[in-house]
Design goal:
Blueprint (H helix, E strand, L loop, with lengths): L8 E2 L4 E4 H6 L8 E10 L2 E11 L6 E8 L2 E13 L6 E6 L6 E2 L1 E5 L2 E3 L7 E2 L7 H14 L1 H8 L7 E2 L2 E2 L1 H14 L3 H9 L1
Parallel strand pairs: 1-11
Antiparallel strand pairs: 2-9, 3-4, 4-5, 5-6, 6-7, 7-8, 9-10, 12-13
Helix pairs in contact: 2-4, 3-4
Length: about 200
């Protein structure tokens, strides 16, 4: 009897909370309590929403998550910690996973709780599920197939091409990938598509 197919849960498809986004939205400003809602969508369709309350005024800063998972109410705290930036420009914030107790900058919701990635078994990143042939194809022609996304990034509303008169690292990286995509001969792309 053949082995049944197993399709791993992908981290890329799970709902995620990024500490850098919370910081960008002003939730991690010092000595404050701020509430709001996080919403997720895919292709314009809503996929999730939770209420959050971030307290940086407390002796032990935390983010309180309040939402429903399969009609079951969930309310719990994820503690936060920070370390001074090595550039002497403020603090670097981290979540402390309620289950693993590890510091992390991203929490994933798999099975209804937002936790560190190591709290889940059998989960993978999308690239880990790709065949060797696909990974090789992506390495050689990936820049061509991702060029639309690169141009989208480049012309995003608040994208910074330069800082203090110098091009940013992100701008240089995107331009390098665009040049790589444009240098791929068309017959190589055609041959790869036919094989």
């Amino acid at each position: 009897m053949p082995k049944p197919h197993t399709f791993p849960t992908l981290y890329n498809e799970a709902l995620q909370i990024h500490i850098s986004k919370l910081k960008g939205w002003g939730y991690l400003d010092p000595e404050q309590i701020k509430s709001g809602t996080l919403n997720w969508s895919r292709n314009g369709n809503p996929t999730g929403s939770i209420s959050i309350r971030v307290n940086t005024h407390s002796e032990q800063p935390y983010i309180e998550l309040d939402y429903k998972y399969r009609d079951e109410p969930r309310n719990y705290k994820v503690y936060l910690t920070s370390t001074p930036s090595n550039l002497n420009r403020g603090e670097i914030w981290y979540f402390i996973c309620p289950q693993t107790k590890k510091r992390c900058r991203k929490l994933y919701s798999i099975g209804g709780y937002f936790l560190h990635r190591e709290a889940f078994n059998g989960c993978m990143y999308e690239t880990q599920t790709q065949s060797k042939k696909y990974r090789q194809l992506d390495k050689t022609l990936g820049a061509y197939f991702k060029s639309d996304n690169l141009y989208y990034e480049l012309y995003k509303k608040n994208f910074k091409k330069s800082y203090a008169g110098k091009p940013t690292k992100k701008y240089l990286r995107i331009m390098e990938q665009i040049q790589k995509a444009e240098s791929i001969p068309y017959h190589e792309i055609e041959r790869a598509m036919l094989s």
